Amino acid sequence: MMDRDWELISVLYQEKNITKASAKLYISQPAVTKRLQMIESKLGVQIVERGRKGVHFTPEGEYLVKCAEEMRARMREIMSNLSSMTKEVKGVIKIGASNNFARKTLPKILSEYQERYPDVKFEISTGWSSEIFKLLCNKEIEVAFIRGEYKWSQGEKLLFQEKLFAINSEKIKIEDLPKFKKIEYNCDIKLKSILDNWWRENFSDHSLKGLMVDRSDTCKEMVMQGLGFALVPSTILKENDKLFKLELLDKNGEFLKRNTKMLYYENFKETNLGKTFLEIVDAIDFKN
């Protein structure tokens, strides 16, 4: 089987829909169906069952999805190794990044890298840090930029730390927070865990329920309008924000912080792509 066949299986498994898979692969729906039938015929197994709500993978299909991940990772490794042997820096780097990092920081890294190595392309995946870490563990990406602590035995680099704050439209004391409505927002499970643990360590009462919004920057706007307080990371705050800010402290009196790290496979840094990419990241001052 060719690499594009493994890619078809992977994308179809992600989308569970032939129409969506064909759009993502930039090929026609009939071409996807025909290619899938050819793969099934060659292997002598049924990979998917078709239904009104999309496709459902058979046990044989589920097995091939795992094989596809391994084969595509192996092919990327082969291509990177061949590139290293010729001393050329070209190919594709598969990167995963948390949503906020992808919006605010990743473009700078990619811009600086591509300025020096224009023959390199990128495939970017974004999402919650927990989702990006899963992609890394499944070898669907080679390097991940995530926030929070994850158990990882291979390469990692701490990029920066951000303090966590309680913010309000008016001056407020930490001990009075339970008396006010708290504005919640969707966030990664690791950040929620840090903030929930801090609250339990400091208060016996639950916070008063206020608004629930989709994003942290929306939450900040609601706080600025006096609709409640919120617990947020420093990355969403600006010096000219008209907010009262209180730095959160842990039980040892230290500033409560969240780490942002780059995680990668050790064999990635042995390739020309990996070596040059890590050098670019090392040279960037993430504090400014």
From TrEMBL:
<dbReference type="Pfam" id="PF03466">
    <property type="entry name" value="LysR_substrate"/>
</dbReference>
<comment type="similarity">
    <text>Belongs to the LysR transcriptional regulatory family.</text>
</comment>
<dbReference type="GO" id="GO:0000976">
    <property type="term" value="F:transcription cis-regulatory region binding"/>
</dbReference>
<dbReference type="InterPro" id="IPR036388">
    <property type="entry name" value="WH-like_DNA-bd_sf"/>
</dbReference>
<dbReference type="Pfam" id="PF00126">
    <property type="entry name" value="HTH_1"/>
</dbReference>
<keyword id="KW-0614">Plasmid</keyword>
<dbReference type="InterPro" id="IPR005119">
    <property type="entry name" value="LysR_subst-bd"/>
</dbReference>
<dbReference type="GO" id="GO:0003700">
    <property type="term" value="F:DNA-binding transcription factor activity"/>
</dbReference>
<protein>
    <submittedName>
        <fullName>Transcriptional regulator, LysR family</fullName>
    </submittedName>
</protein>
<dbReference type="InterPro" id="IPR036390">
    <property type="entry name" value="WH_DNA-bd_sf"/>
</dbReference>
<feature type="domain" description="HTH lysR-type">
    <location>
        <begin position="1"/>
        <end position="58"/>
    </location>
</feature>
<keyword id="KW-0804">Transcription</keyword>
<keyword id="KW-0805">Transcription regulation</keyword>
<keyword id="KW-0238">DNA-binding</keyword>
<dbReference type="InterPro" id="IPR000847">
    <property type="entry name" value="LysR_HTH_N"/>
</dbReference>
